User: What shape does this take?
Amino acid sequence: MSEASFSAIFREAAPYIHYLRGKVVVLAMSTHVLRAENFSLLAQDIALLNSLGVRVVLVHGIRGFLEKEESLADQYNQGYRITDENMMQSIKQYCGAVRLDIEAALGMGFLHAPAHTVKLSVTSGNFISAKPLGVLNGIDMQLTGQVRKIDTESMKACLDRNQLVLVSPVGHSLGGVTYNLSMPDTAAEIAIALKAAKLLFLTRASGIAGENQQIQLNLSANEAMGHMEKYKQHPDAQRMFPSVLHALRNGVHRVQIIDGTIDGNLLKELFTRRGVGTSLAHITFTNIRPAVARDIPDLLQLIEPMVEKGILLPRTYDDIESHIHEFFVAEYDDLLYGCAALKHFADDEKSAEIACLAVSSSGRGRGYGDLLLERIEEEAKKQDIHRLFALTTQTADWFIERGFQETTPDTLPALRLAQYQDNKRRSKVFIKDLLDD
Ligand code: ARG
Assistant: This one.
């Protein structure tokens, strides 16, 4: 790797390192990841998170081990395993073995920096109390349970001491019976109870797929539901999805799904802008806000392709800077995808113009243009503006579909008409009466 790319990568990671310090991150890890060849590397990356001050709760699965055992009856009802005594016995044994294996892998420390090795301390315990799932659709689920309560106080106390909390998918009832829990459900309940900043599913699924099996980078809960119905998904993604939704609907900021069997994926997902899997939020993270000075370089980049095509008038840094208070931007997950300006007329305070409406090519088709127009209209009404003009050479249809009507240039306020005649672009002029709405 060149020096330059190292520094670029480090700079890209820095804000995420800063953001995650002190935050709770719940990792939900399926058996296949535990058994993958790269597991010891992943364990080191998890230890690295802990050393950066991230409060890590690791919930492991058990399913893959049970599926291997032919002597165990493999019965499911509504996606939940039916657990009998015999099976519960195996589950306890596997949980013990898996815990030890994870502890050992996490304890390997950082192989590349022996001098700076900090010993990671791992805690597990009776953090989860359970209750039986009972009879579902007439079928007794026996020792399959659900989370009853999470002892957040004890968990937090361990996290405060910089310990990694390791949780198995089992819980005890008040009556002293041990129940088998679903790993994804348990992880989601923990993330909700601890108000985690993130819940990450590490499975064999690379994320949620869209058209042509393309993994989607960012989805809202609603978009994701649509994708689950419409496109074929990896069975792991399918199985985790109800818990993903449950977590999002109950206050977990981000749920991320990545393929945990691939070396480096956890770090790439957490510390790059793009990530590798699917990142989900309850609502889309689109934000329309007034522009500020630091947006100017992005604004210039945004309008440049449209200037080249002759759709927008060229503007310099200084042009935008002196009119920055007129601009609004569409921001998604801290990146700018669109802008629009509300221009006033010195000689007609009841009229204004929506100008410089631009959406980047990567943001097309996501409704940013509509959101920007909506915001501009709202702003104009607030300022008691009655008429909104739009001048365009190529996007007449777009404005007509949104309630604008074509008018003649001489309806423009005098100063703007003079400008119009000067620049010879011969744009079409549209007008929308805001009092009508
Ligand atoms: N690293 C950032 C985060 O953890 C962004 C990740 C984006 N990931 C994605 N799949 N789009 O929040």
Notes: The chain has 15 helices and 23 strands. The first helix runs from residue 3 to 20. The chain has a mean pLDDT of 91.
